[in-house]
Amino acid sequence: MNRIKTIMIADDDPGILDAVCIMLEFEGYNVYCTPDGAEILNMNSKLPDLLLLDIWMSGIDGRDICKQLKQNPTTNKLPVVLISASRDIEGSALAAGADDFLAKPFDIDDLLNKIERNLVN
């Protein structure tokens, strides 16, 4: 039996956060939304199956969070999709250890394809 997958979304733009959370819940995912990307660094248990992480958030850079996650043995297998309004930084997102990159604005089908491709079964 397949377990419902859990996705955590970290984005400091409340409009994007709400819209993506609603769309993914509609698609049948368990979704946790936070405007604070550093929150994922404090999670010791109940990790999500995938993290959607905005690169430029107030207070901390999503690439730095991604690097920390990928260096930690507890979280290094967690798939991370970095999101940014800047299309020019895909290379630095992947260099930070991201499993994938998505430029804003994005089509919901592109988001869903990236999620499905990166989810660990």
UniProtKB/TrEMBL annotation:
<dbReference type="Pfam" id="PF00072">
    <property type="entry name" value="Response_reg"/>
</dbReference>
<dbReference type="InterPro" id="IPR011006">
    <property type="entry name" value="CheY-like_superfamily"/>
</dbReference>
<protein>
    <submittedName>
        <fullName>CheY-like chemotaxis protein</fullName>
    </submittedName>
</protein>
<dbReference type="InterPro" id="IPR001789">
    <property type="entry name" value="Sig_transdc_resp-reg_receiver"/>
</dbReference>
<feature type="domain" description="Response regulatory">
    <location>
        <begin position="5"/>
        <end position="115"/>
    </location>
</feature>
<dbReference type="InterPro" id="IPR050595">
    <property type="entry name" value="Bact_response_regulator"/>
</dbReference>
<keyword id="KW-0597">Phosphoprotein</keyword>
